[in-house]
Amino acid sequence: MRDFTNKVVAVTGAAGNLGKATAMAFHDAGAKLALIDRRREDLSDVFADSIPEGEMCFYVSGDLTDEQYVSEAVDAIYQNFGSFDVLVNIAGGFTMGPPVHETPVDSWDFMINLNARTVFLMSRATIPYFIDQGHGKIINIGARAALSGKPYMAPYTVSKSAVIRLTESMAEELKEIDGINVNCILPGTIDTMRNRQDMPDADFSKWVTPQALADIIVFLASEDARAINGASIPVYGRS
Fold first, then answer.
1. 67 neighbors 84 (Cβ within 8 angstroms)
2. Residue whose C-alpha is closest to residue 121's, from 135, 146, 138, 105
């Protein structure tokens, strides 16, 4: 197991399936955690027993599409722990929809804001701390679907494509600073209860589990991945 003792890891979307698996993986590796989600009660419901608030954990709740809130949240994380080593941008979501010519502007904005704006704002607020420290890791969550256009899901594929391009741009901008790496992973279908309900006839054994994805995230946050920068890593299971 990789050792993250005395490392501070922030996980957005922490109360979701992948967020919880990622938080638990870093917790088991000894990290101090800033767990971020829209509602504090969701964080309490998911983590009160396993990762309660205290010296090793800080709950942060609010709207990650709000510029001022994100800036204040990142400042609060740094003030609480005195350092900040890893940002994992998991907050996001998926919706199907009508064809592009019938897509409401609100639906477009919702996906772009949820999947791309959150990554942009959190990364923008965090990077100055990483530059001052001379080290830091950012791991973003793209999607296999972002690699090409798909029918009836243009807002989603475009928003996740933006995450890939943001990852590459930040990696290029920061590559001269030894110790800062920015990467993303591209999950296939994740084995969650919601996906099982939506696709009851699928072979669930071929899907990638949240725990398997969390292992890749922990690897990318470790020194073992120090030579990986700007990568979009496919993690499809056998789907």
1. no
2. 138
What pTM was estimated for this model as a whole? 0.96
Q: What confidence category does residue 75 fall into, taking pLDDT thresholds of 50, 70 and 90? A: very high
59 assigned to active site? no
Can you tell me whether residue 58 is helix, strand or coil?
strand
Nearest to 37 by CA among 76, 7, 71, 11: 11
pLDDT at residue number 76: 96
Tell me how long the chain is.
239
Cβ-Cβ contacts under 8 Å for 185 (sequence gap 6 or more): 139, 140, 141, 142, 213, 216, 217, 220, 232, 233, 234, 235
**156-193 pLDDT, tens digit each:** 999 999 999 999 999 999 999 999 999 999 998 887 88
Which residue among the candidates 59, 69, 152, 156 is catalytic per the annotation?
156
Please name the residue ranges forming H helices in the chain: 17-28, 40-47, 67-81, 105-111, 118-133, 154-174, 193-198, 210-221
Task: Give the start-to-end residue ranges of the domains of the chain.
Answer: 8-235
Specify the CATH superfamily of domain 8-235: NAD(P)-binding Rossmann-like Domain (3.40.50.720)
pLDDT of amino acid 42: 96
Instruction: With H, G, I as helix, E, B as strand and everything else as coil, classify residue 11.
Output: strand
Report the distance separating Cα 18 and Cα 36, nearest Å.
13
DSSP state of 236: -
Confidence bin at 194 (pLDDT 50/70/90): confident
